[in-house]
Amino acid sequence: MTPDPALADCLPRLAERHRSGELGDAVYAAAYFLAWQIALHGRRYASRQSKADPKPEADVWLPRFAGDGDTGLRTALVEAFERQYFLGVIPNVPVALAAWLRGDWPLTLTTAIPSPETVLDMQVAGTRPVTVVADYARALNPVLTHANGFAFLVHDLEHAYKFFHDPRSHRAQRRFFGLLREAVRAGRFDAYRRDPVFDERFDYLMSDMNTHVVHSLRFLGAVLIECLLRREGKGGKEALSVEAEAELVGFLRGLGGLWRFPAGAGVALGRLVRGGFGEEEARLIEAAVLAN
């Protein structure tokens, strides 16, 4: 992105107002999002959802970010996120911002990228990080695999939506992440994490995979298979040896024992990678996760 003088002035001001306590975490993150959105798209930054609503006005926001208090900005921002579409941004993002601003979703503002283990702990506790890269010069550059600080913020908000929007899914994700942390602390994955490819994908599972718990377990099974194939010197489309398949099924059933799964759910875990997995197995696993 080409440096934008207005954004270069706005972001440090917002950061200072946040550091001084004038702006709360949610208002700071929401204002940061909107300042970037206006800098990227100008007057096209948003459109109204209903013709009965006033047209979005880009020019009014930067003065408000400099002078309005937390309460006034919170009210105005919630109204904007509930009534407008934002160019280039999926609707889940403003939904997440509005829910955070209302106090419905307890997100956690971070100014440094947390480690996968820290994100795992946060998810067990019922929150997700939203990272704001406060330094303007740093925010213009790539952040991990994302183009800049704004793209990374949007990514975090998309995951916040996936984590919170459905209450049952939220409960199941929290329970699953708790079980995953229990297995990590018990050293169950240590031997596999010596493989750098598996370790990278396991980090993704811990910190960046907010989906149905069965999908997460399928992903775990897939990356375990890949790890064992690499150990055997085989390609991704080849079959595991009988010994490696037995190791994998035994490992998954061992996780079921550690996680106190009923016998049926433990057998279903093995079928994730051996075949014969269907709706009943998915139901058994989800019920076992929610029971923890």
Brief rundown of the structure:
Helix content is 63%, strand content 4%. With 292 residues, the protein is mainly alpha-helical. 36% of the residues are buried.
Gap between N and C termini, in Å? 47 Å
SSE sequence, one letter per element: HHEHHEHEHEHHHHHHHH
How many structural domains?
2
| Lateral arrangement of strands in the main beta sheet | 1-2
Count of runs of 4 or more consecutive helical residues: 14
- Low-confidence spans: pLDDT under 50, at least 5 residues? none
The helix content is 55-70%
How much strand?
under 5%
Query: Structural class, from helix and strand content?
Result: mainly alpha
Average the pLDDT over all residues and give the rounded result. 95
Shape: elongated
User: Care to count the β-strands?
Assistant: 4
- What is Rg? 22 Å
Largest beta-sheet characterization:
2 strands, antiparallel
